[in-house]
Fold these 2 entries.
Entry 1:
Amino acid sequence: MSDTRRAARRRPFLLLVLVLVLVAGAGTAAWRLLLQGEEKDARAVAVDAFLDAWASGDAPAAGRATSDPARATARLTAHAKDLPGARFELRRGERDGGRSSGRDGDLYPFRVTLHLKGGDRFTYDSVAPLVRTGDDWRVAWSPAVVHPRLTDGSKLAATTESRRAEILSADGTPLDGLAPALVGAPGTSGLHYRYEKQLAGRAASGVAIVGTSTGRTLATLHTSKGDGGSPVRTTLDKSTQKAAEAALRGLSKNAAIVAVRPSTGEIVAAADNPPTGENRALRGQYPPGSDFKVVTAAALIGGGMSTSTPTPCPKYVTVNGQRFENQDLFELPEGATFADDFAHSCNTGIIAQRDRLTPSSLTDTAKAFGIGQSWDVGAVTFDGSVPVATSANDQAAAMIGQGRVQASPLVMASVAATVKDGTFRQPVLVPAAVKQRAKAPVRLEPPVASQLRTLMRAVVTEGSGKALRGMSGEPGAKTGTAEYGDATPPRTHAWFIGYRGDLAFAVLIEDGGSGGKDAGPVAAAFLKGVEERR
């Protein structure tokens, strides 16, 4: 065989060997690339395991994906508590292959989005350094993993900055501690509770770095804009409110004063004693006693009586075996008129006129004073109750403000205001919140209103309202002593209602004795205080 043929036969063999060598070399390179890909995936899997567990709130699982499970678990658990209500969204970026963390690890960047309470968001970037532990990759733990600026001595914490609005008086200035029982405490009681959303608005939320042991803010990382609250403007007149609070100061009994403007129905004072706690002025439920005789007188006058109608006033009167008495068993001389009985608060003379009324007379007449309607005042109120009489005894008790008749100091101040103005104007405290004022379904006829003013003036000039005698402005009044409870002798609340000028008021002293003797001086002190502060 020639050398040429031998050479030709060797070429395919050499080419095959060369191809195999090249293929073998290429295969080695491909295998190396595959190994590198698996190595890269293992690191990414380690980072993802840590981030997924952290985002789901599983601190122990996140801790196990780190080089220091105990410390990482404790820190991440505390981190969730330091940011209450926050939701963590974590997203891994591409590997930052140019930098080294430790002997054989890489840094993997990730982005943290904190969905904060209230809908605000805060986003920042951090990195997860990896370290090999045996055959596994783990996140090399340090507080800087949570946030690059954290150390063992600091932590992230949620912050809030509230720009709460204030409750204002009628002139637009803050009440500055006045009417605390009415105003209440932020978020818990009174007007603050009723108008919490309006007053609080949306607080500015944020995230800060604070000292772990000191709680001192080291750096503010994020603050939302927030929305400040809007003030609530009331009709309270600061000088009148101060006069009411001063008149109650020093009393050892629970008490209240309410004052309204007859011409508008605006509540200009609502004071309670003690000054904090229960709001008796607007929400109290009490038998009004003889103060209710204003409504009874309106019913009787509407039925044909007049101020001059003869009305005997004996010490006591009996209705179906039940004895009704005058306070201290007083009686008026022969020839007493309806005006005399009203001025001296004679129970027996009034009750003796019960046959002039039907079972619903007082209920119907009370409607002219707004009692029985649902009042939209801008605050929680008790708006009074005068049920239809079920018997002669029930009717007799109701005529003197006892039995099932109930009222608040606000209701009784409004009764006085209705007499003064001649028209029921539903009291209002927060005008902007009032959608529709209650209206009296029946009218207080002008002649009736005129005679009521005559009767209430006589209470001051001739009768039990002598505490206001000599005051300017021709004030009118009605005293009331309301029995309550089962004690013998009965315990009594002291009432005094009245008006002077464009100011009507009611004074209540719980377990306070007599209306004229005990509540009268408080009413006088209130009116004098109003005059001094003008």
Entry 2:
Amino acid sequence: MCGIVAYIGSRHAHSVILKGLKRLEYRGYDSAGLALMNGNLSVYKKQGKVSDLENYLHEVGQDTLHASLGIGHTRWATHGEPNDVNAHPHYSGNKELAIIHNGIIENYDSLRTELINKGHQFESETDTEVLIHFIEDIKKHENLSLEESVRVALTRVIGAYAICIVSASEPNTLIAARKGSPLVLGLGKEKGEFFLASDATPIVEYTSDVVYLNDNEVCVIKNEKFTIKDIHTELETAPYIQTLDIELEAIEKGGFEHFMLKEIYEQPKSISDCMRGRLNAETSTMMLGGIREYIDNMVDANRIIIIGCGTSWHAGLVAEYIFEDLCRIPVEVEYASEFRYRNPVINPGDVVIAISQSGETADTLAAIELAKAQGAIVLGVCNVVGSSIARASHAGSYTHAGPEIGVASTKAFTAQLTVLTMFALLVGRKKGTLDEAFYQTLLQEMDEIPEKVEKALELNAHIKYISDIYKDATNAIYLGRGHNFPVALEGALKLKEISYIHAEGYPAAEMKHGPIALIDKEMPVVVVATQDSSYEKVVSNIQEVKARKGQVIAVVTEGDSLIANMADHVLEIPATNQLLTPLVSVIPLQLLSYHIAVLRNCNVDQPRNLAKSVTVE
């Protein structure tokens, strides 16, 4: 949530920042703003999209915008409703300082009261404005430099933050810091050129050399160089410079109407990229270098705990079936947001697998720290190289799915599931619970998944036709059994997220325990009914729906004639081993939600009230 872009160098800062904010708009789009050092410290901000800010700047006039230092922000509201006043950047009381902030200052209310008692006046409802006033107050009353004032203030606040600060009295200085919220420093190709951003997407066209700031680090850029210090010790830390592996084309739409559709269609490639260099069906070999040292920990584990949020939690639910089937290890799948607050029982022999597309999910990070503190081995599964979860875990594997810009995750789900399946195959084989012949069969099946996903994508036109029939529905039920139950949950989540239609996913057998009361001729019921061990039971569930005049959209195995004679609409996907079916059966559900949302004129890539990466509680 919230996007940060800052620049210092010889380019026009406002142009760099605006372009960067557009690429970060998936992180927050309630309002946007920037502060420029253009002779004076000037702040420009507007409620709405980045385009609204851009239009406002055109009215202001280009002559006033020339600056080589600036900070910009696109907001996902936490404290205070979305409006011009609450938009970032925020001034200090004397208008000498300006700040942008991603995160939440938890003790802002007590700080605000303290500052009001000292005579400070606030314009906004935000915790961010309180922070910059606090820094101003420390600078004034403790007679400290800006750098020291920032550092001291951050030792006294409670909460999470990624911040950038500029000062009218130090026009060539840019200060940034992070704790619990991501921030990356880009090193420009020209001397004295630096970029700061919430993630690498806004800066990839300018540089490939980056430093991911760690928690409790402050970065000071001035005199054409940068230093990084520990906030608490003041000791300078040596930067670890990494090379980005993101191509500019990967963060453009590439001719698709929406990022979400592009990312749905990228799944044959993203799944293949996830397996590349790891799985070789011809030689029947598989290797995951990232967890090589911890395979024995998984083999010997008394229990595996999988944690995640949203779509990542659904991927974990599918993995529970796979691990227990192939490895015979008890698995618990936990919402990270609940896990961290309920005093969970964790033993030193437990292995925790943490799943997050961004690698920055605040609840998942907190759950990791809890698990590590109680002696568990933590393995991360995330997409973003250098992300906080990747660094906080003992080890793990990247999904290599490429940037996912659409707020509703699609290729992240299938990539996470691909990695988790490979985990289970390696552990099951080494533990001896997975028959060698079946292991070879599954390797071959996995190698064929990208081709089967391509086949499922050919349903797009038919799904668009079905979507037009149900675009005005107000409720929907998704049903599945076994490995496809989490797919039903994921399908319902996608419909809710981007079309704003209320939808619920259930194990098919649970329909009789309540949801069946909702079924009538107006209720679309999406059933994942592929040929597997529970097929006959699902057929019975479909009959129960039809007996109550429900409208059935069935995802079935290619060639299925039984359900074709029962359902109102049938979507055929290639036959796949039931362990791997979710990688294919989810595709029609993603397309269904996409087309319904488009037909309802919803903002598919930026659904209301949602942000791509939830980096605060």
